[in-house]
Amino acid sequence: MTWRDYQETVAEFFRELGCEAAVDSRVDGARASHKVDVLVRFRRFGLEHSWVIECKDWRTSIPKEKVLALKGVVDDVGADRGILLAESGFQPGARQAASRTNIALRTLAELRELAQGDLLVGLLAKMERRVAELQERCSGLRTTERYDEGTLVSTPRPGIDAAGYLSNFGCLSFLDMGLKQARLGRFPVLIGVRSSPREAEIFASDLQDLLEKAGQILDEVEQWVEVQELAVQGNAG
Question: Rounded mean pLDDT of 6-34?
Fold first, then answer.
């Protein structure tokens, strides 16, 4: 990938972890203004944190001078940590200069491996939000009427596939319960039931398996919801 692609990939990685990540940020320090490849901000333990990420798409290993330069920027802008990312490796002097400091030397693959657990948990949170959003959209496909005192009856809007509504809303309910169980680490978890063959149950063996299978289920539900929303709009017109 190009250096610009490398920057954007790094920024997206931190966004997947729930951080704010801006490319080519201009940051004012105590002594100078600095252009930062990727500026990462996040809130943890009630405190704001900021990391300065330097991306080096080099063919040769990174020398000590680049570590010292990043250390100077981190200190000047008051960042909590600096990370120097390079796929070409680091010279011994660079590793020594970063030792016992708030500067980390990594490849992007190493960073992904170290953050794998946090990354999966962040993706789980995104999936929970996606389930909630689809449940909200499904609610918009039905009407609720009061028949007797204290009795409310919900029915799909005109033009809505009633059987599909029950099936897809049920899928979201199953998945919602499965995600809650996953939060507690109770694997394998039941996340759905196939309509065929023979109402086969869908289990996820671990968090990675859950994200893959749940993603497929949500894609199918979202496609169905989009079709039904267009049907509602057509009837309204």
Answer: 93
